[in-house]
Amino acid sequence: MNWLRLFRPGDWLLALLSVLVCVATIPFAWQHGNGERAIVRRGGDVVAELDLSRNQRIDVIGPIGTTVVAVDQGRVRVASDPGSHQYCVRQGWLKRAGEIAICAPNQVSVQVEGRNKAYDSLSY
């Protein structure tokens, strides 16, 4: 801890300002908002665009069976899938823009979109 004695008042002020700026920008970094629609794809092709304000259920036929997608109270989920591991079903309810559930064995995906475009590290 000898290095702490080397800090001068200006160093402490700069460190404090840096921490405050980082904390202040956190809410803006994850501000995607709630989704407005769900895009359902099969094999990369758009099968349906579902309005999240309407409760509905659709069946998507894939290579290994039927995937059921459900919309309820402004959120969407994969209700059932013929895949063995059920990863997309375990993803649960999706409601924020940018969230996605991928059923890889059946080549079906459900992505939530909203007003603001959500970006991830692959988009850069």
Describe this structure in words.
The structure is a single chain. By secondary structure, this protein is an alpha+beta fold. It has a domain of 79 residues: N-utilization substance G protein NusG, insert domain (mini-chromosome maintenance (MCM) complex, domain 2), CATH 2.60.320.10. Helix content is 20%, strand content 35%. The protein has 2 helices and 7 strands. The strands form 2 sheets. It has a 4-stranded antiparallel beta sheet. It has a 3-stranded antiparallel beta sheet with strand order 3-4-5. A hairpin with a 2-residue loop joins strand 4 and strand 5. It is elongated. The two termini are 40 Å apart.
Count of helical regions = 2
State the end-to-end CA separation: 40 Å
Count of strand segments = 7
Portion in helices = 10-25%
User: What is the annotated CATH architecture of the domain at 37-115?
Assistant: Sandwich
User: What name is given to the CATH topology of the domain at 37-115?
Assistant: mini-chromosome maintenance (MCM) complex, domain 2
The gyration radius over C-alpha positions equals: 21 Å
Main sheet?
4 strands, antiparallel
